[in-house]
Amino acid sequence: MEKVVHEIPPVFDCHSRILILGSFPSVKSREAAFFYGHPQNRFWKVMAVLFGDCACSGNVCRGSVPQTTEEKKAFLLKNGIAVWDVIASCEIEGSSDSSIRNVVPNDLSVILETAHIERIGCNGGTSYKLYEKFLREQTGRPAVKLPSTSPANAAYSVERLAGLWREALL
Predict the structure, then answer these.
(1) Single pTM value for the model
(2) What contacts 156, CB < 8 A, 6 or more positions away?
(3) pLDDT at 63 over 90
(4) Would strands 18-22 and 81-85 be described as parallel, antiparallel, or unpaired?
């Protein structure tokens, strides 16, 4: 079990209206130094369907999905989306959410005091459980549990994920 500190800063500005929280960055995201860095994670495709000009059938998407870190940051900010994670540091084996122990939560006030966040969405069950346990009381705000965009959640196509996320967030 490795003690890991979250080193990716949150993405937000004063125009952010929706906050999406993951649990903790995967190994691939930590290597890329940005959110949802695993090539099989569908987060960026879902965002492109919800806010961009992308259309998906199953897991095949046609249209523009942001690729570089700069494109992804610009896309989020243009669409009023803030992104961060519930956990500031923890013990974790690789990228396994089920192995997470000794959680130290992030302080969301840095975002909530700057942006007018109208909705908080948790990307997956672990993120939601950790939000409820560590941050709900601090923020005084409810969060919506969203189906995970992780490749481990293969039962959901991009199309289905986007539909459920749209229903919950927009």
Answers:
(1) 0.94
(2) 147, 148, 164
(3) no
(4) parallel
